[in-house]
Each structure stands twice: as structure tokens, then as C-alpha cells.
User: Which sequence fits this backbone?
């Protein structure tokens, strides 16, 4: 077990305990402290990955994700940990309602951040930690993983693009979003209508079959 990994998990567990105790005993500062500790533990893991080029928050020294994947992992952890630390700070200073209002006005910030995390996750999925595989193992494990990675990457890029668009042009983005939602609602209503019609026809056919069976 690596000492730094133990300390990172200790901070995360201590933060979770502080949040539980703060909510159970109505200690607001305890909740804030718990969120900060969790964010600090995750952020330290990110710094460790960026510095050592090894994936952090792992108890083993197994290779496979060293180098660029570890850097991506570290950046993801820094993003999550830094966000939690900032959230704890805003809660403690009473500035969170104003920040929440800003996020409500510009949800593209959240879209872009989520997109970055999805892109990073896709990079990790693309990474082949076990290069020496037989053909059947590649088809069974590697190919489905690449397909999932492509889907996640597409969603991540879409989140980044839509987030940037919403921040740059909120009115235009809102107009397009309303149009897309209205079209999707129309499609879903048509599907529900077709499903209901099919169920009605099936019920009528069933009733006719029962009447025919009774007459015979």
C-alpha cells in the first residue's frame, strides 16, 4: 500500500464522516469541512498523477496507465477536486446562492465541465492496459470497450461544444434548444400514439377472438 494513496483515501473518508456528522448533528461547518476534505483528497490525487505520471488512487504499482493516461486522469481529478473545494468555499462564505444563479444563467459551464470529464474518461477507455491479448480476448473485451469509448467521446465533445455555444450565445442556444425539444416531444407523442393505437387494435382483436371462441 502506498502512503500517499492511503492519505488521499483517509481524507476522502474523513470528509464523508464529517458530512454525515454535520448533517446528523446540524453542524453546518462540519458539512463544509467534509466537502473540502473530499475535494482535497481528490485534488491531491490529481497532483500526484501529474507529477509522477502514474495513475493515483491505486494501491498497486501496476503499469498500463502510465504516461499520458495518468496525466488525463490527474487533470480529471483536479477538475473534480477543485470544483468540490470551490463549492465548499462558496458555501462557507455564503456566496453559493450567487454562484448558483450564475450557473443557472449559464448552464453551459456545467455542460462544458461534464464534457471534459467524459472526454477524459473516453481517453482512459481507449487506453489498452493489456496489449498482449489473444484474438478472442480482443474481440470479447477490447472491441466493446472501444465502442463504448467512441460513444462517450461523442457525448463529451457534444457537451463541450454545446457548453461553449451556450456561454457565447445564450439566446441563440436557448432558441435552438426549444426547437429541438419541441421536435423531440412531437416524435415521442407520435410514438406513444402509435403504441396506444396498436394496443387498442390488439385488445379489439382479442375481444373478437374471445367472442368467436364463445360462439363456437
Assistant:
Amino acid at each position: 500500500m502506498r502512503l500517499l494513496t492511503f492519505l488521499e483515501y483517509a481524507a476522502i473518508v474523513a470528509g464523508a464522516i464529517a458530512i454525515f456528522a454535520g448533517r446528523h448533528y446540524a453542524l453546518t461547518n462540519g458539512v463544509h469541512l467534509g466537502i473540502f476534505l473530499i475535494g482535497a483528497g481528490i485534488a491531491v490525487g490529481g497532483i500526484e498523477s501529474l507529477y509522477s505520471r502514474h495513475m493515483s488512487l491505486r494501491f498497486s504499482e501496476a503499469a498500463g496507465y502510465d504516461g499520458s493516461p495518468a496525466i488525463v486522469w490527474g487533470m480529471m481529478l483536479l477538475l473534480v477536486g477543485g470544483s468540490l473545494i470551490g463549492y465548499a468555499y462558496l458555501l462557507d462564505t455564503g456566496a453559493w446562492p450567487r454562484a448558483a444563479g450564475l450557473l443557472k444563467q449559464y448552464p453551459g459551464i456545467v455542460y462544458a465541465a461534464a464534457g471534459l470529464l467524459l472526454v477524459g474518461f473516453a481517453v482512459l477507455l481507449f487506453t489498452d492496459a493489456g496489449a498482449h491479448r489473444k484474438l478472442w480476448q480482443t474481440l470479447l473485451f477490447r472491441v466493446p470497450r472501444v465502442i463504448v469509448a467512441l460513444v462517450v467521446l461523442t457525448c463529451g465533445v457534444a457537451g463541450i461544444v454545446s457548453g461553449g455555444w451556450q456561454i457565447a450565445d445564450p439566446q441563440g442556444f436557448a432558441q435552438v434548444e426549444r426547437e429541438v425539444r419541441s421536435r423531440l416531444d412531437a416524435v415521442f407523442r407520435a410514438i406513444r400514439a402509435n403504441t396506444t393505437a396498436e394496443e387498442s387494435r390488439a385488445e379489439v382483436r382479442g375481444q373478437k377472438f374471445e367472442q368467436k371462441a364463445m360462439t363456437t
Residues 1-105 form one domain.
